[in-house]
Amino acid sequence: MASTRDIRRRIKSVKNTRQITKAMELVAASKMKKAQQAALAGRPYAELMAHMLAALADRVEEAQHPFLVQREVKTRGILLVTTDKGLAGPLNANLFKLVAEIKTPVKYAVIGRKGAQFIARTHRNLLADFTVSDRVAFTEVKVVAEFMVKQYLDGAIDTVEILWPRFRNTLVQVPTLLPLLPLTSVHDVVDDLRSGAGQAAAAGRGLENQMIFEPGPGVVLDALLPLYVNREIYQQVLDAKASEHSARMVAMKTAKDNATNLLGDLTLEYNKARQAAITQEILEIAAAQFAS
After folding, report:
1. Residue 234: closest CA among 130, 153, 86
2. What is the pLDDT of residues 96-133, one digit of tens each?
3. In terms of Cα–Cα distance, which of 135, 165, 172, 182 is closest to 236?
4. What is the domain range of residue 54?
5. What per-residue confidence (pLDDT) applies to 74?
6. Which of 17, 55, 179, 245 could form a disulfide with 31 if both were Cys (CB 3.0 to 4.6 A apart)?
7. What is the torsional sign of CA 242, 246, 251, 252?
8. Quick one: average pLDDT of 214-240?
9. pLDDT of residue 150
């Protein structure tokens, strides 16, 4: 049995660990709530864009836009969204498993240090890596989206896809691969935006036939489709941040609960060791008294 001094040292260490993990749990919970609110705040923007694109859909020749041209896929382009820090449970590992299953030629752009380290460590083709803050400013994500679009238009990649942990709820984050470019049709883009905007999108559909576009529908479509790609990438990065903070909160809560259980076991062990030491001292005193 370990000495009481060693057990006291372990109890102190476990208490410190529990205090740290509890603080990290509270911080992650606060950040998770803010990330969820930020993701919901994008719905009115998606609703308005859906109305405008729906009004444009029947007034333009879709095949003229480079985002709508279907071409042979030789090299895929995937934007991998991971965390900068660890202690987020299996969140990143689940994404990396999905990456390992991809056997076709791929060039990666990465948001997050963990993803960049994995791509470099496994000798995959890394185009660029980016970092974004916890608040996820649109200007930060716009740089990433513009980089991916430029690579697509230059022919370096034939698709633009995003791989991120989709936020379902606090306990469930699902690794998801979403194709962005090339787009199938403007109508599919409208359906996607409306599904993201929710029921509120149906309320304003009567306004679509009343819209007038200047200088012309084609020019407006050329401006809106890049905005759609930027919006989709921004929305999924917000979603990934909500997943990150949720996974970290659950991991820290589990660590805190384990520390509490271990603390109980150590306290019981300490009391037993202390009782055994006291009993031993009493026996030695009694033996010395008897011997004298």
Report:
1. 130
2. 999 999 989 999 999 999 999 999 999 999 999 998 88
3. 165
4. 31-249
5. 92
6. 245
7. positive
8. 84
9. 92
